[in-house]
Specification:
This protein is α/β, with parallel strands linked by helices. It contains eight helices and 13 strands. The chain binds NADPH dihydro-nicotinamide-adenine-dinucleotide phosphate and oxaloacetate ion.
Length: about 260
């Protein structure tokens, strides 16, 4: 059996869980882990079997998976694509930056390869992207998380998240603006918009809600296909309350599909 040699970019809440799930995988081997320079020694201790570096190795890698954050796309994904290595991306919100989607496409074309944006913490991306072909009239996305998941974000400006007693809308606007302002919380807004009506026409509401324990994502879409409303109640990862566990499974699914003879 051919074993796909994987480089994992980012070894935080998602990355460590991906590593754990792939430990006993016979078709995929994480041979390299890419973290910021100052984290190399710590990551090497956590994953003694892999090469840990601050750059994706230029050879010996069949597949790259990004679970690091928006900055990692310019820094690591673009050069890997240009070298011809296919890349799987979790930080989809990075594509809200002007010109980045075009740069990714150009790099993939130059490397004769492909960049795959995973669905991550949201579902029905297949249905939405298919519905777009018939024509969409409206797409709305609502992201609702416990107050602590909004710590360290602009949601803290002018409010004490710990003191919230009722649901509070912290953002209302376009998916482009949401993804830019909340790079660790609104990747899903970007994914829904890229599959559907685009970054500027997708209406986004972000809510801090002390009554929920999960990350609750709702998508409502209408168009020539009909309509759907989807609500996901995702359990957050213990290591990062901003991030849903489903994101890990989505990344692992994408990786396993690359190695599988039959993909679903
Ligand atoms: N599509 C989706 O549904 C979702 C996407 N995401 C995306 O995934 C990202 C990671 O999430 P999560 O694992 O929870 O976050 P964590 O903060 O737990 O982990 C991020 C990891 O990436 C490393 N890192 C940061 N910047 C870089 C870089 N430029 N190059 C290499 N490594 C880097 C960090 O290192 P250090 O700690 O040393 O900084 C850390 O190890 C989020 O920032 C978000 O963009 C998250 C949730 C859902
Ligand atoms: O993991 C989640 O629930 C969603 C998330 O953080 C994001 O969209 O960036």
């Amino acid at each position: 059996m051919t074993v796909l040699r994987v480089a994992l970019i980012g070894c935080g809440a998602i990355g460590t869980s991906v590593l754990e799930l792939l430990k006993s995988d016979t078709a995929l081997a994480v041979v390299a882990i890419v973290v910021p320079e100052e984290g190399v020694a710590a990551a090497q201790k956590a994953a003694p079997g892999a090469q840990v570096a601050s750059r994706v190795p230029a050879s010996g890698i069949d597949l790259v998976v990004e679970t690091a954050g928006h900055a990692a796309i310019e820094e690591h994904v673009l050069p890997a694509l240009a070298r011809g290595t296919p890349c799987i991306v979790a930080s989809v919100g990075a594509l809200s930056a002007a010109g980045l989607a075009e740069k990714l496409e150009a790099a993939a074309v130059a490397g004769r390869t492909q960049v795959q944006l995973i669905a991550g913490a949201i579902g029905a991306i297949d249905a939405l992207a298919a519905a777009r072909i018939g024509g969409l009239d409206s797409v709305r996305y609502t992201g609702r998380k416990p107050p602590q998941a909004w710590k360290g974000t602009p949601a803290e400006q002018g409010r004490d998240l710990d003191a919230l007693t009722q649901e509070t809308v912290i953002f209302e606007g376009s998916a482009r603006e949401a993804a830019k302002l909340y790079p660790k919380n609104a990747n899903v807004a970007a994914t829904v918009s890229l599959a559907g009506l685009g970054l500027d026409k997708t209406l986004v509401r972000l809510i801090a809600d002390p009554a929920v324990a999960e990350n609750v994502h709702t998508v409502e879409a209408e168009g020539a296909f009909g309509s759907f409303a989807l609500t996901m109640r995702n359990k957050p990862l213990a290591a990062n309350p901003k991030t849903s566990a489903l994101t890990v499974y989505s990344a692992v699914r994408a990786l396993r599909n690359r190695a599988a003879a039959l993909a679903i």
